[in-house]
Recover the amino acids of this structure.
């Protein structure tokens, strides 16, 4: 009631705490970027967030990026540095930029670089990179020789070539920027430590992967507190919330991936936070901002990165009305699942050559798109499976 009264008066947005805002008139949310700067800037320009020079032009708008800026593309450093500057510009104009932690931000901190492409390391290379790499190699070999002389003596003749391939120029500097074991003041580590796992703007929760029954009882603050604590400790084999498949960085049940989240679990989460919907990234929804469970869950990872087909899309919430933005225009989101076919037809009209959309329509019409959801809702469940205790 207080929120509605404030909005009626045109009051400025109010920050309730570090994780909740009220009275935000316009919200734009974008999903996974995965190292594609051109796609990122293109979406911000199309959504009216930045001008042709990439500077903030959206006034009091709140921009939410739901995580997974790194990996699969080469531009992570450039994107984060631009977004940091954009956040300062937004504040001067009454707006905000909210960056959430995704599983790939966490992976880069604790050293899981399986999805990092060569350009990510090259972005950090400088004139002294070869020298730094030599010193690091020498120190690593001296340590190995002291700890395990037999293993050191058994290294293959081509070991150095293999090692150099695994540690390209810029790798050391990349780790100094991200990994607190290399440098606790690294700029990318500090960036991730400034990011929340989940926030709530008005009646909408934003999180990268999702909130499962296992974390249903947790406050939004506790999710971030646990994640930050694990990031400080590093990869000690007990990464907890950072790698938990039911945790907020990895969970896919809200996206309908089996085992899908039960409808009553989603209702319990929303009631717990006095929210109306949850917005998630992480699980690619093939070119479309996709509402589920009567718009209680909205997927916004459309696959904007070239690694996923380069399909831009964003969610906009303005004066309580929800719409999806695409290259060809805006389409209002349906209020319930019954309206999704008509919504999808409107999106297809904007992108008639997009085969993924026509395939999604066929799957929706056949009931295949929600099969895992129907199975989850039909199964019997004890109370802990609906909303367990907090972790």
């Amino acid at each position: 009631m207080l929120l509605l009264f404030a909005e009626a008066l045109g009051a400025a947005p109010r920050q309730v705490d570090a994780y909740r805002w009220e009275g935000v008139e316009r919200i734009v949310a974008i999903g996974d970027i995965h190292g594609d700067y051109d796609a990122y800037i293109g979406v911000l320009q199309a959504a009216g967030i930045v001008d042709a020079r990439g500077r903030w032009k959206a006034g009091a708008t709140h921009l939410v990026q739901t995580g997974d800026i790194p990996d699969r593309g080469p531009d992570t450093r450039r994107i984060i540095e631009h977004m940091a500057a954009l956040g300062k510009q937004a504040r001067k104009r009454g707006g905000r930029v909210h960056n959430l932690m995704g599983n790939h931000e966490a992976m880069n901190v604790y050293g899981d670089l399986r999805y990092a492409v060569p350009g990510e390391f090259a972005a950090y290379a400088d004139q002294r990179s070869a020298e730094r790499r030599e010193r690091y190699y020498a120190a690593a070999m001296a340590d190995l020789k002291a700890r395990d002389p037999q293993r050191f003596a058994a290294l293959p003749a081509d070991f150095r070539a293999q090692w150099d391939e695994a540690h390209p120029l810029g790798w050391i500097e990349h780790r100094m920027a991200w990994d607190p074991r290399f440098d606790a003041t690294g700029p990318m580590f500090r960036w991730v430590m400034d990011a929340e796992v989940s926030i709530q703007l008005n009646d909408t929760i934003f999180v990268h992967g999702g909130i499962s029954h296992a974390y249903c009882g947790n406050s939004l603050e506790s999710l971030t507190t646990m994640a930050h604590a694990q990031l400080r400790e590093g990869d000690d084999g007990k990464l907890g919330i950072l790698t938990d498949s039911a945790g907020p960085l990895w969970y896919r049940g809200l996206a309908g991936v089996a085992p899908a989240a039960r409808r009553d679990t989603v209702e319990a989460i929303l009631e717990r936070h006095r929210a109306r919907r949850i917005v998630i990234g992480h699980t690619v929804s093939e070119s479309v901002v996709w509402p589920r469970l009567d718009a209680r869950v909205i997927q916004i990872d459309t696959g904007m990165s070239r690694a996923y087909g380069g399909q831009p899309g964003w969610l906009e919430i303005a004066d309580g009305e929800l719409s999806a933005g695409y290259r060809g225009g805006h389409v209002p989101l349906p209020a319930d699942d019954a309206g999704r076919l008509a919504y999808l037809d409107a999106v297809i009209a904007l992108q008639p050559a997009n085969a993924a959309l026509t395939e999604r329509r066929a799957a929706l019409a056949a009931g295949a798109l929600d099969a895992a959801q129907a199975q989850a809702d039909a199964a019997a469940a004890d109370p802990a499976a609906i909303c367990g205790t907090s972790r």
Notes: Residues 129-147 form the longest helix (19 residues). The radius of gyration is 22 Å. Residues 331 and 347 are 7 Å apart (CA to CA). The chain has a mean pLDDT of 94.
